[in-house]
Amino acid sequence: MSRPPQIELYTTPYCPFCDAAKRLLKARGLAFSEIDVSEPKDKEALKAKTGWRTVPQIFLNGKLIGGYQELVEMDQKGLLKI
Question: Mind listing the domains of the chain with CATH numbers?
Fold first, then answer.
């Protein structure tokens, strides 16, 4: 039996793409951990880790898959089905 993927979603509360990513994951029945990076020190730590300045940043099983656009592409390819 396979385990569900571990999904981490790095967000800020004022980001419409973050909200859209959360809606998409919920619609697919996927659980995720949301990490708020609205504090400047948290944003800088995430940028140091990934090189990205934007949110959302989505990690699947510990690997950065990208942001909202990449999540949509995975969904369109049927890769978000559980």
Answer: 7-76 (3.40.30.10)
